[in-house]
Amino acid sequence: MSAREDAGLWGSHHEDNCDDRSGGRQHIDRRDFIANMGGAAALLCATFMPSAAAQGSSLERQLVSLVKRQRAQGLIRADEQTSWSIYDFTRAKKLVSINEDTPRQAASMLKPFVAQAFFYTLQEQGSRLGYTAKVRETMTRMIRDSSNTATTELMQLISRYNGGNGPRDVEHVLKRHAPGVFQQTSIIEYIPANGRTYRNLASAHDYSRFLWALWNNRMPYASEVRDLMALPNHDRITKRVAGMPSNIRVYDKSGSTAMLCGNMGIIECYDRRGRPRPYTFIGIIQKNQRTNYYTTWITNRSNAMREVSGLVYRYMREQHQLA
């Protein structure tokens, strides 16, 4: 299977409030973006995006072996399904594609999608909407602090300018502008304050396509969304990952419920000559039923994900002579 595909196809714990990041990236002026690219829709039809990995890649085999070992150790149970996706920007190659097109609970990993839906709406509405300091503060709480209340506020704001039909308006905005990115995304409920959200769905492939477009400035206000995702938090893909340097930048969003442990993001590391060698990491572990032991369950699955992330980093370090 090709490693690239035509983007013309685009046309009382709070379970979901356990997320984390660090890093930054230069802003791209919105007017320059539109002038240079001729609008997001035209650009998406003229570029390429990552597709599924060639089956049996070396890293994919290693990852499968590790997850099997984790299952044997009880770190991932028989009633839990997983999805994994790794994309190497330097070589423009999908390295891992496991259950990548299976829709799974999105939880808080949906929140960058909400931010992007707002910016699509802003692009359409202009001064009628506005990216005010208050909206920016709400978006910061949504991404950095994983505030469910802030997320609902933004979803309601998006809906107000797109028909007034509630959460589904967020999905419709995304699919109207980039249907090839959000192929398995389904947004049908607000995230309640207690974080028990189980009905919104997305696939690992959706996250992969979104992160690719975000990194390559293929969406309006991409630099702003990256900056929000780079705000410091407690992610599962770089923090407390054995062997991973503490100065690595990560642009991410995690998601947690009593049925889901997930994290999706871009890890930006550098080789020995100081050149960036970014890659995406998406990991999702989903349980069939809610656990009765949330703290223990989410801790163990988070550590299992960190172990997988460490494996991926060691592979990338060898491939790219990382510093």
TrEMBL record:
UniProt KW keywords: Hydrolase
Secreted among keywords: no
Entry GO MF terms: beta-lactamase activity
UniProt superkingdom: Bacteria
UniProt-listed GO biological process terms: beta-lactam antibiotic catabolic process; response to antibiotic
Annotated segments matching region Disordered: 1-24
Enzyme Commission code(s) on record: 3.5.2.6
Catalytic activity from the UniProt record: a beta-lactam + H2O = a substituted beta-amino acid
Keyword Hydrolase included in the entry's annotation: yes
Segments forming domain Beta-lactamase class A catalytic: 134-268
Family classification: Belongs to the class-A beta-lactamase family.
Entry protein name: beta-lactamase
Organism: Halochromatium salexigens (Chromatium salexigens)
Species lineage: Bacteria, Pseudomonadati, Pseudomonadota, Gammaproteobacteria, Chromatiales
